[in-house]
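Lecture notes, unit on protein representations.

Consider one protein chain, 586 amino acids long.
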Amino acid sequence: MDEEKNNSNNVRLITRSERSEIDAHAVIGIGATMKEERGLACTGTQVYAASRFEAQESVCFGGVLFALPALISQGLDKIFTTFRQLPNGFYGLHHIILLMCFMALCRIKNPEQLKKYPCGEFGKLLGLDRSPQVEYLRVKIRQITEQSKCDLVHEQLFQTWTEQMDEAFYYIDGHVRVYSGSLAHLPKHYVSREKLCLTATTEFYVNTCKGLPLMVITGELNEKLKAAIEKAIIEIKKVTKAKADKTSQKPIFTIVFDREAYEPKWFKKLWEEERIAVISYRKNVKDNWDESLFEETVVKVDNVDVTMRLCELGTYIKDAGWFREVRKLSNNGHQTAIITTNPELNLTEVAIRMFTRWSQENFFKYMIVNFDFDKMIEYGTRELNSKTIRIPNPSCVQLSYKIKKLREKKGRMEAKLYQKIDPENAESIEKLQKIITHEKTLLEQINDFEEDINKLIEDRKNVTAGISIDQLPPDKQYNMLKQESKKLKNIIVMLAYRAESSLYNLLPEFYANACKDGRQLLKEIFISDADFIPDLQKQILTVRRLHSLSTPRANAAVRKLCECLNKTQCIFPYADLKLFFDSVAF
């Protein structure tokens, strides 16, 4: 009893002011210190909280601010000026966009992964007390995507990036996004990296010859590469000042793609009517050129000298006319055929432009591994225009599949029969007749396959090749994933990749073997801690004492990188503070 009495004497009543302070912390969240701004946000009388940087030591991911000048140079302001400001509250549009860019550069691939990191540290990167919670971040992202202005931002960024290009060569290829959810009913696509046909959607990327992304065309359902190229041509022509001149031999621009969109008549039409040149692989090559015609040539592909055996001849393609054809002879005797309608490029340049297409494949691989750009940041589906969108008739597709399989079986039977009745292996006519008689069952099977194939072909003639979505059974009709949030993520990821690439291009001047280790160095910088020292009188925010990197030569490279970044005189968005980068601490 005495012990209970002593404990009761130690109890202190909580005052009203202390109680209100506890309630405030419960409302504004753990780690929140900007109480006045958050109070104004609760009443809706504040557009957004102003960024307020304070002296901080060892800010987690502080090195990501090294990428801010590059982000601004790549057109970050286009997002701020195109989207409307978010509803009154604590976080503004620029806070959310900057947070998403920093997440991408730090390899935090979706909002859920923010839970693994201290919210206060990411808040310091924005000049705030803490970053938004995952649920609230999704609310803000939804407020951005509901404006439906991602396409307009894409167009403005594409125009900005195109003006920076030295050469009018556009590389176009598709990327298949596998869908593993259950909300959407999507068609199947062949996924080359999985070697399987899976439920998926397709995005078509337009890149430069160095692999930098320019534009993304989102496939609604079952678009092919040719349809995507035609859409891309429309967008490219909007920002291309030159006009087609049928008397000129100079193309307005050149598009490079693989053999999926191979159609010579279309190539000729693009050149004659639009003055747009193409470079692509030739399909269905059945002849081999004389190997004595090929000459060894040293070409530079991705800054690497490569010796190739090349040859060029004119090629006539039925119903399309004459084309320039360039072939590369491999060591195993294989001849890779390339056709082009560009009359200005020489033999070597045609080969370089075509084989540089692998920079786009490398881009896809890097983006999947480092940015996981297939992930969605908003879930949900939307309906398609079921009357205007046409798809292959499933009945026709099924018949074609059966015909293909029967022809494969028939071919195997014929090959087996040919091996047995080969006249060269038969000693006499009598023995050959005996073999044929003995293999009567095999011949009957071949004839049965032929009859089945002919019957299926007749059945296919009575089936419409294409139908609209509303002609499918209700449970089989396709819908579509929400696109706007994925378009926003594409914008963020492209900005982040281009910003990282612009820093990467600075490294060869002062970092040995930058082509191999440059991007790894940048990733190490972005996730490193750094000190923030603001000088409000001089309006300078100093990012200094970046924690020591893994090697002395990396630290030396960062010092040189600081000198390059300080020349940009970068201003932190909506904070009016000039960024100054100091050298690495040892």
